[in-house]
Amino acid sequence: MATNFSEIIPRPDLLETIHISVQKHQGAKRQIDVQMNLPYAIEQVWQLITNYNNLADLIPNLTRCRQLNHTETSKYLELIGSCRILNVWFSMRLVLEAIELPPYEIKTQLIEGDLRSYWGHWQLEPQMDGSTVLSYTAEIVPKPGIPVALLERQLQDLLPVNFLAIRQHLDRIHSSNSLVT
Predict the structure, then answer these.
(1) Collapsing DSSP states into helix, strand and coil, what is residue 84?
(2) Which sign, positive or negative, has the C-alpha torsion 120, 55, 3, 181?
(3) What is the rounded CA–CA span in Å between residue 49 and residue 177?
């Protein structure tokens, strides 16, 4: 069952630690970059974000995430997300190829779905104090008929909430192991 937005505790102090930027490229192409420092060891963060079949329990706008199959080098994931825009619920389905690269990177590429194109890159970087910087970069092109301004606004609104959900989930499961409270 997906996390309800109301379960995410508003934490302005944590939201201020999330850095997000959206860059407009030619046409409807958008690149989004999100970054947050997490006061947890890199392995704790990695275990959480690579537990694909349970991501919908963590990410508020993700209603389903399941691993379809895998090869020696790739995992194939189906993601279904939903959000409410102007009191209307919208749903989006993506099938992605995810490639986990050492030491702590995940590259994703759209196989099929409700976008014209998508690629994403998750990266974890250990810090000297034992914390981890979690970064996400994606390039997205919507299909015709999806207003790019609407998609852009949703990305700016939802991705910080998703990062906050990751932080709060780590806080719940590792509260005694946090470097910082």
Answers:
(1) strand
(2) negative
(3) 18
Which residues 6+ apart lie within 8 Å of 25 measured at CB?
31, 139
Ramachandran angles phi, psi of 9, nearest 5°: -75, 125
Within 13 A of 101's CA, how many CA atoms are on the CB side? 11
Local confidence band at 11 (pLDDT 50, 70, 90 cut-offs): low
Q: What is the model's pTM?
A: 0.85
Q: What is the pLDDT of residues 46-70, one digit of tens each?
A: 999 999 999 999 998 899 999 999 9
Nearest alpha carbon to residue 116 among 142, 81, 152, 82: 142
- pLDDT tens for residues 78-128? 999 987 767 777 888 999 999 999 999 999 999 999 999 999 999 999 999
Residue 115, phi-psi category: left (phi > 0), alpha (psi -120 to 50), beta (remainder): beta
pLDDT, residue 2, reads 41
Cβ burial of 167 (10 Å; 0-12, 13-18, 19+) is: buried
User: For residues 161 and 164, what is the distance between their CA atoms, to the nearest angstrom?
Assistant: 5
Which residue in the block uniquely carries the two structure tokens 């104090």? 129
Yes or no: say if 73 and 99 are a contact pair by the CB < 8 Å rule.
Answer: yes
List helix spans (H) across the chain. Answer: 12-15, 42-49, 148-173
